[in-house]
Amino acid sequence: MNLRQIEILRAIIRHNTTVAAARVLGLSQPAISNAIRTMEDQVGFALFQRVNNRIYPTPEATIIVDDAEAIFDLHERLEGRIQDLRDSRAGQLRLVATPPIGYGMLATAIQRTQSLRPKIRTYFDVRRYEGVINSVESHKAELGFALGFSGKPGLASEVLYRGEMVCVMPPGHPLSERRQIRPWDLRDYHFIALESGTKLGEATRAAFDQEDEGFTFSAEVRYANTACTLAEANAGVAIVDPLTASSGRFKLVSRPFAPAIPVAAYAIWSENRSLSRLGRFFLERVREVVSDLPKDL
């Protein structure tokens, strides 16, 4: 017996007559009667007793339907899961980001997504740029987010945000009185530099070279979050990306830095795997968060 036949048997027992079962299943009454004969031929014993033009299930038929209930329960759960997936209400999100994006706008996007889709499960990691790219390439993450993505075969991307690096310092710092900071303005102050070899660290060094200004620092750190932590502790001033500077986690003031150091935030995914419905839903939430950012970042 196949699942459709068991469904017919179940409907007859539930509704007591072939006419009612036919109406519920959207079949004709003769089709139901033919299905009974076919099922009885297949199993080799009677499924119903005929008494005064009425049919009554045999104990064997009742056992079959009782045992099949687990199948129908599983099918109903599967249908519900499919509906949830269709509406992006359930599923898994696997995300990875560099710190400037991960600790700021992506965290907000995750909160919004979980608020709208409470059944989903999110796996989220913060890594260096190379780790983000590797995670997307190896399909450990469906979506990656990074600053300064320069393109790579097999990866698709979308620019989410464009801005410029800023100089951050504690409130009341002498440099806070300036409207714009240039490399030579930092000569008399402790400078917290981003690590050599990183995209933002190298971009900062190139800006100093452009102005023929020597690049000296009192501390070197890998992440802009670390630079802001030190600046907040009055250990110096730093040049960081605007997303980190405006995250609201640090009591710092920021000023534009010149020459301008452009910064772009990207969403990255694999070209050979289309984004899931949930992935597209989440990306739309990220776009909303970006649209809410102050326009003067």
UniProtKB/TrEMBL annotation:
Residues 1-58 form the HTH lysR-type domain. Keywords: DNA-binding, Transcription, Transcription regulation. Coiled coil: none annotated. Signal peptide: none annotated. The keyword Cell division does not apply. The keyword Lipid metabolism does not apply. One of its GO terms (biological process) is positive regulation of gene expression. SUPFAM superfamilies: Periplasmic binding protein-like II (SSF53850), Winged helix' DNA-binding domain (SSF46785). It comes from the Bacteria. InterPro entries: LysR_HTH_N (IPR000847), LysR_subst-bd (IPR005119), WH-like_DNA-bd_sf (IPR036388), WH_DNA-bd_sf (IPR036390). GO terms for molecular function: DNA-binding transcription factor activity; sequence-specific DNA binding. This is Transcriptional regulator. It comes from Gluconobacter potus.
